[in-house]
Design goal:
Blueprint: H1 33-51, E1 56-57, E2 60-61, E3 63-66, E4 71-74, E5 77-79, H2 84-105, H3 108-112, H4 115-131, H5 134-142, H6 147-172, H7 178-186, H8 192-212, H9 214-220, H10 223-226, E6 237-240, H11 242-245, H12 270-273, H13 294-306, E7 313-316, H14 318-321, H15 331-353, E8 357-363, E9 370-371, E10 377-387, E11 393-400, E12 406-408, E13 412-415, E14 420-429, E15 438-447, E16 450-462
Antiparallel strand pairs: 1-2, 3-4, 4-5, 6-7, 8-10, 9-10, 10-14, 11-13, 11-15, 12-14, 15-16
Helix pairs in contact: 2-15, 4-6, 4-8, 6-8
């Protein structure tokens, strides 16, 4: 008797990996107007970053964030933790500026001003001068290690490390005076925190700009994820003119390619080879695009060589590509601009009228009042005076709001630059002059040498109940 074969009913399991291995991007050297604009903007940012910490103002570093002292000095203005509302305000203004620019012209910030990309292009420049252009690097990476390959790799990484270290030092120079930091580094006289942050920012710069590069923009940067929400069909974006370019294909320079059914795109791939994030702009708008204009420069160069009109890849709008009228000035853009101008005006006014003096009064928390030797009713106050300027000041303290009151104690005090002085004063009043048990009073502090520098603080005077 033959056996009936048993059908295998074991479920087949297919394992799909969600991890996409990164493909190294070899960026090709190119020239063009947008590259020149990016070089200028990058040079300005690098000069500001490396040079601002060396600026001096009134005998001290112009920009110094003194974290241990909880003071932030910016061109003669000293900001304290109590002023962090101004920082929040500034961040909101910068956010609205980013929104305004994004609505108008897409990701200009990413392509021309983002520190990640400024340093990435800086590192790619070091890569090109040491290892050659795209084809040379691709060919060399496929070859086994050789003395020539080793020397080129060593030179590249040496420049990378040099850029990373100088970036770290420049960054730390805003928190530790740069003129003190560099000598301390040379003699290896650094504290544990300074050493840690110098090493951290050097490694972060080396890793982000040298190895991660476009991965930071694609996967780590939140702006790439939400920036498309601010786009509309009138936003200037880098796009490929599909109607003009298709069908793409190879052809001879002087051939009648239109008779063959071809468009202006010769399918050379230059727009892809120069892209720092490795996308093909001909596939349409993609969130990975950082609007650097590299593909525009590369395509314009090819169009010029072929004798075609430039602009196959260009800054344009979806409405223009569809043959519709573009409205650059529109309600959303005007709304962002109005809000931005209002906030900047208010912020500027607060900064201009800001007084480098802060006063806070704390009433004695022991007894409600005491009786002095002469029978007067006495209240004790702790007057805290913060000198937010960068020079010592002499201040006069006066009392308002309570008639016949006498201020007992030193009514003139000297407060050093950046000091928070806790000064004790007494207020005494003849009980016969008190008509009620509770009075609102105000301590007014004025700079002796400048009447415009003044601040006040309210408190209460407590007397006996009749």
């Amino acid at each position: 008797m033959s056996q009936i074969p048993v059908k295998d009913v074991t479920p087949q399991v297919e394992v799909v990996s969600l991890y996409a291995e990164r493909e190294h991007i070899y960026v090709k050297f190119y020239k063009g107007i947008f590259k020149n604009l990016r070089i200028i903007s990058s040079a300005v940012m690098l000069l500001a970053f490396y040079g601002a910490s060396w600026l001096q103002y009134d005998g001290r570093q112009a920009i110094h964030f003194d974290l241990p002292g909880r003071q932030f000095h910016v061109f003669g203005q000293t900001f304290w933790p109590q002023d962090f509302m101004l920082l929040s305000w500034l961040l909101i203004i910068l956010a609205f500026t980013l929104f305004f620019v994004t609505v108008f012209a897409g990701r200009l910030w990413c392509g021309y001003s983002c520190p990640q990309f400024v340093w990435t292009w800086f590192f790619m420049w070091a890569e090109r001068i040491t290892e050659g252009d795209r084809n040379a690097r691709m060919k060399r990476d496929k070859q086994p290690m050789s003395p020539n390959k080793f020397l080129r790799k060593f030179a590249k990484h040496s420049i990378w490390v040099l850029i990373a270290v100088t970036t770290s030092i420049a960054f730390m120079g805003y928190f530790t005076p740069i003129r003190e930091l560099i000598p301390n580094i040379l003699v290896l006289d650094l504290g544990p925190w300074e050493s840690w942050w110098l090493a951290f920012f050097a490694v972060a710069t080396y890793g982000n700009a040298g190895w991660l590069r476009e991965q930071v923009c694609i996967y780590m940067c939140p702006y790439a994820r939400f920036q498309s929400v601010m786009f509309d069909q009138d936003t200037l974006i880098i796009s490929y003119d599909e109607k003009r370019g298709e069908s793409r294909g190879k052809r001879k320079r002087d051939a009648d390619y239109k008779a063959e059914g071809l468009g202006d795109c010769i399918d050379c791939g230059h727009c892809v080879h120069v892209c720092p994030v490795g996308i093909d702009i001909r596939d349409g708008l993609q969130y990975e695009c950082v609007a650097c204009g590299a593909c525009v420069d590369a395509c314009d160069d090819i169009m010029e060589r072929m004798g075609y009109e430039k602009g196959l890849v260009r800054y344009t709008t979806e409405h223009e590509l569809e043959g519709k009228k573009t409205h650059l000035v529109r309600p959303r853009l005007i709304g962002y601009l109005v809000a931005l101008m209002a906030m900047m005006t208010a912020f500027s006014y607060v900064l201009i009228t800001r007084t480098p003096l802060e006063v806070d009064t704390i009433r004695g928390r022991g007894a409600l009042y005491t009786v002095a030797n002469d029978g007067d009713i006495r209240n004790t106050y702790s007057v805290k005076i913060a000198n937010k300027s960068q020079k010592d000041g002499l201040y006069r303290i006066e009392l308002e709001g309570l008639e016949y009151a006498e201020l007992v104690g030193d009514t003139q005090v000297r407060v050093q630059a950046g000091e928070l002085l806790d000064h004790t004063l007494y207020v005494e009043v003849d009980p016969r002059a008190l008509e009620k048990p509770n009075y609102a009073i105000e301590f007014e502090v004025t700079a002796v040498d400048d009447e415009n520098i003044r601040a006040s603080s309210e408190s209460r005077f407590i007397g006996p109940t009749n």
